[in-house]
Specification:
GO terms for molecular function: ADP binding; ATP binding. Keywords: ATP-binding, Coiled coil, Leucine-rich repeat, Nucleotide-binding, Plant defense, Repeat. The protein is of the alpha/beta class. The chain is 32% helix and 15% strand. Among the domains are: 102 residues; 147 residues, Rossmann fold (3-Layer(aba) Sandwich), CATH 3.40.50; 78 residues, Orthogonal Bundle (Helicase, Ruva Protein, domain 3), CATH 1.10.8; 88 residues, Arc Repressor Mutant, subunit A (Orthogonal Bundle); 111 residues; 59 residues, no CATH class. The strands form 7 sheets. It has a 20-stranded parallel sheet that branches. Strands 2-3-4-1-5 form a 5-stranded parallel sheet, sandwiched between helices. A hairpin with a 5-residue loop joins strand 7 and strand 8. Helix 3 runs antiparallel to helix 4 and helix 17 packs across helix 18. The longest helix is centred in the N-terminal third of the chain and has 33 residues. The protein is globular.
Length: 932
């Protein structure tokens, strides 16, 4: 029985429990009322957040995010409870359960409390948004093509590299630099890798104040009229780090004057910019320069198809023409997009053909937006070139055919000949200025560097850049460019308008040039690479009084009209490789001529009037092979001559003229004080030694010296200092009496059947020799008869030996310790007595050739060994073993990349040190069909 003292509390408790049960429906109504308020507040907050993000890019505070999450979770819980109540309602009616009603009522009361608490917390009197600056995402189109994607990855890697803080991204207009950079900007803005990411579009004439204002807006600071740079500098220093993008820069920006701290590894900051000129990268002291290239052909085609409208538009009938249209855009994304949109959903072949002709003609484009969106942007780069001289040099490049590889030296020579490069003294100084102009054009992405099949430095114009150049010269008509069109007829006389300054008909099939073109302002006429051309009429040059450059190289002309003698303004006459031209009209009146190129022309006598060309700086009559006389007194009058190229002309300079007083001697060459390039054949050792002892060779930058038959070798392009001995009766070079200048870098010995040794007595050295070529020396026995002078061949890089059948051992071991350590290439061919490449009588197990890269062995039937021990050559990558049946082992274990041999030889080859090496090298083995 309960104590009386316990009854009051028990009654009170039971009363409370009863009230919970009795007021369940009231609690449910109150909960729904509070839930409605909570959902409304949540919707209001979300609407305000969306509006702030869409209009201003504002981000919510973290506490607001947490509140919304908690609110959404509570709403889910309450709505889920209502579903439970509905499911159990029927059971409560049939079998009321006081305990479950009590429990439900208490739960609802707690939820009401939670809702009220959230409503109270959701007032956010200090605002919903983060006080930091909003994330501003720039509008950006998608990256087009894997080339651009790889470039984007490369730039991102540089930005994230702590060792790199200044990055220059350059390329021609419309190539996609800004597209790549906006995508990178947006990505890094989202990732938060930098405390602040700023984008500044630099105007073409940047104003310091405008740049500061744009940066201040991003930093969220106010600039006063004074100490603007100090305010920005302090704002940057308060940041952990920063990343700034400067887009479309045309000149450098002084970071200190703007108020930007110098980015470095310590502050973890980076500056990256886009520009059309690599010169800007240099001025900004970039640590990485990244060039954005045009799209590859298939990438370009893919982008073009997308803009046109896809496969549904480009039918099989249209596709060949459409591909040509796309190709004319030269992989430039801006042009591909512009032309593609102009032809979008066009399915008429006639319209496509018309568009192709428009693009090929480089005329005023009828293609919509081509002029405004493409050409105007490209022309701005032209307008920004430093001066008219550079602009004229740029336009000159358009005289060459589309996609033509223009040899750098030839281009500069033409500029110099026409007078585009002002005469500044010596030929080399003018040439240096030409290279400086080329660099500016390359830096501005107006031309690009490349090389031809002969590894000669060349430049090339992008197709649209070339079209731009031609279009600039249209009004008035300054240029007539029909290069590479393979014309069969000369342009009609009415096309030769009086305003023409330059004409290019190179790469044509014109047989005869006739008529009387009235072109009094014509400066340059290109007719080269016209193999069908064999005749120029007497009247053709009649009205070309101001002509400065005439190029007829690589033509089949047999004679030139006498009117050529009247072209008194001519600076450059280029007739190289005219193999049927045997004589010239008089040059006596061409007093202004500076360049006379007769390379490969089979002249039998010196051109009449040559002695009158007192301004001549470059004379090339090499490789004609038929010149048998050279009158005395001519060279002594050509006091400005800097380049004299006569190697292979047929004329060999004698020491004296006792037998013929009218014959020039080597003394005339010695008298040329300004000579920097010389290619000459000497009649004998005495003649050569007289030049060598004069000391004139010390002033030469390039040279070729030949002793012996001059019809065996010529030197078109001098790359170094070369000596050639042909058909001489020397037993050795050391015993020949030839006093070799120390400048000699290449030595060729050919058809000297008496030659047995290079150095017979160990007394001579070749301190600068880089290449040694020995051909057809029937009695040759070796490089050195005795131990060679220390470091005699210390700089030798290439050793070429062929048809020396008495030679058994190529390299004696005692040459190696102090010599041949720079040897990169060994090439041995058709030496039937060769038994060993490197010989050693001391029993030494290992020798080292640290720089050897290539070993060529061909037609060596007696060869049994490269070296009897182990040969260490870690850089050896190419081995050719052709027709070497007795060579069974190779003494090295290199990381080869190419092995050229017969299958039979490869199957018999062994490696003692590593039996598995052969299997690993198998993928690099090549068995060409022509090897037997």
């Amino acid at each position: 029985m309960l104590s009386c003292a316990l009854w009051p509390p028990l009654c009170t408790s039971l009363g409370k429990q009863y009230n919970y049960i009795r007021k369940l429906k009231d609690h449910e109504k109150n909960l729904q009322k509070e839930l409605k308020l909570l959902k409304g507040r949540g919707n209001d907050i979300e609407e305000e957040l969306n509006k702030g993000w869409q209009q201003h890019g504002k981000k919510p505070k973290e506490v607001v995010k947490v509140w919304l999450h908690n609110s959404q979770e509570l709403v889910k819980e309450i709505e889920g409870m209502d579903t439970e109540n509905q499911n159990s309602m029927c059971l409560r009616r049939l079998c009321p359960n006081c305990y479950s009603r009590l429990k439900q009522s208490k739960r609802i009361e707690k939820l009401i409390s939670n809702v009220k608490g959230l409503l109270a917390d959701g007032q956010f009197s200090d605002g919903l948004f983060d006080s930091s600056l909003p994330v501003e995402i720039l509008p950006a189109t998608d990256i087009q093509g894997s080339t651009a994607e790889r470039k984007m990855v490369e730039i991102l890697q540089c930005i994230r590299d702590p060792e790199v803080s200044k990055i220059g991204v350059y390329g021609m207009g419309g190539v996609g630099k800004t597209t790549i950079m906006t995508n990178i900007h947006n990505q890094l803005k989202e990732t938060g890798e930098f405390d602040i990411v700023i984008w500044v579009t630099v105007s073409r004439s940047p104003n310091l104040g405008q740049v500061q204002d744009m940066i201040a807006k991003e930093l969220g600071c106010n600039l006063s009229e004074t100490c603007r740079e100090n305010t920005l500098y302090s704002a940057f220093r308060r940041r952990k780090n920063f990343l700034i993008f400067f887009d479309d820069m045309w000149d450098n920006i002084c970071l200190e004057e703007v108020g930007i701290p110098e980015p470095n590894k310590e502050n973890g900051s980076t500056i990256v910019w886009t520009t059309r000129s690599n010169k800007v990268c240099n001025k900004m002291e970039s640590q990485r320069d990244i060039k954005v290239e045009c799209l590859h052909e298939e990438e370009a085609w893919s982008l073009f198809k997308e803009k046109v409208g896809g496969e549904n538009v480009i039918s099989p009938e249209i596709e060949p023409t459409a591909r040509k249209v796309a190709k004319e855009c030269g992989g430039l994304p801006l042009a591909l997009i512009t032309v593609g949109r102009a032809l979008r959903k066009t399915n008429q072949l006639e319209v496509w053909r018309s568009a192709l002709e428009e693009l090929k003609s480089a005329s005023n484009y009828g293609i919509e937006d081509m002029e405004t969106k493409v050409f105007q942007r490209l022309k701005f780069s032209y307008d920004r070139l430093s001066n008219d001289e550079v602009r004229e040099c740029f336009l000159y490049c358009a005289l060459y055919p589309e996609d033509y590889l223009i040899p750098t030296n030839a281009l500069i020579q033409h500029w110099m000949a026409e007078g585009l490069i002002g005469e500044v003294g010596s030929w080399e100084k003018e040439k240096d200025k030409g290279h400086s102009i080329l660099k500016e054009l390359k830096d501005a992405c107006m031309i690009e560097s490349t090389a031809n099949e002969f590894d000669e430095d060349c430049v090339r114009m992008h197709d649209l850049i070339r079209d731009l150049a031609i279009s600039i010269t249209k009004k008035p008509a300054r240029f007539m460019v029909k290069a590479g069109l393979w014309l069969e007829e000369s342009p009609k006389e009415e096309e030769w308008v009086e305003s023409l300054e330059r004409v290019s008909l190179m790469q044509s099939k014109i047989e005869t040039l006739h008529g009387e073109p009235n072109c009094p302002q014509l400066l340059t006429l290109f007719l080269q690479h016209n193999r069908c051309l064999n005749n120029v009429s007497e009247t053709f040059f009649k009205y070309m009084d101001n002509l400065r450059v005439l190029n007829l190289s690589y033509t089949n002309i047999e004679s030139l009209p006498d009117a050529l003698s009247e072209l008194t303004s001519l600076h450059g006459l280029l007739l190289g490789f005219c193999s049927r031209l045997k004589c010239l009209p008089s040059l006596a009146k061409l007093h202004k001529l500076r360049v006379l190129d007769l390379f490969g022309v089979p002249l039998e006598e010196v051109p009449h009037g040559l002695e009158n060309l007192v301004k001549l700086k470059h004379l090339d009559i090499s490789d004609g092979e038929r010149l048998r006389s050279f009158p005395s007194g001519i060279l002594s009058k050509l006091t400005n001559l800097e380049h004299l190229l006569m190697g292979g002309s047929g004329w060999r300079w004698p020491y004296s003229n006792e037998d013929d007083k009218d014959k020039a001697t080597v003394a005339e060459i010695i008298s040329l004080e300004n000579l920097t390039e010389l290619s000459a054949d000497f009649s004998d050792v005495t003649s050569f030694n007289s030049y060598s002892e004069s000391g004139r060779w010390e002033h030469l930058e390039k040279s070729y010296f030949g002793i012996g038959r001059s019809d065996h070798f010529g030197a078109r392009v001098l790359r170094s200092h070369e000596m050639c001995l042909v058909d001489c009766d020397f037993k050795s070079v050391s015993a020949s009496g030839v006093k070799l200048p120390s400048i000699i870098q290449s030595l060729k010995i050919i058809d000297c059947n008496a030659m047995e040794w290079i150095d017979e007595c160990g007394e001579i050295g070749f301190p600068n020799l880089q290449r040694l070529e020995l051909r057809r020396l029937l009695n040759f026995q070796g490089l050195c008869k005795q131990k060679a002078q220390q470091e005699a061949f210390r700089n030798l890089e290439e050793l070429y030996v062929s048809d020396c059948h008495r030679l058994k051992l190529l390299i004696p071991y005692d040459l190696l310790p102090d010599n041949l350590q720079n040897l990169k290439i060994i090439n041995v061919k058709r030496c039937r007595g060769m038994k060993e490449i490197i010989s050693c009588d001391t029993g030494l197990d290992t020798i080292i050739l640290p720089k050897l890269e290539k070993l060529f062995m061909d037609d060596l039937p007696m060869l049994t060994s490269v070296f009897s021990g182990k040969l260490v050559c870690d850089f050896l990558s190419v081995v050719n073993g052709i027709r070497c049946p007795n060579l069974k082992k190779l003494p090295f274990s290199p990381a080869l990349k190419e092995i050229l041999c017969t299958e039979e030889w490869w199957n018999t080859l062994e490696w003692e040190d590593d039996p598995h090496l052969k299997q690993r090298l198998q993928p690099f083995v090549n068995h060409p069909w022509w090897i037997t």
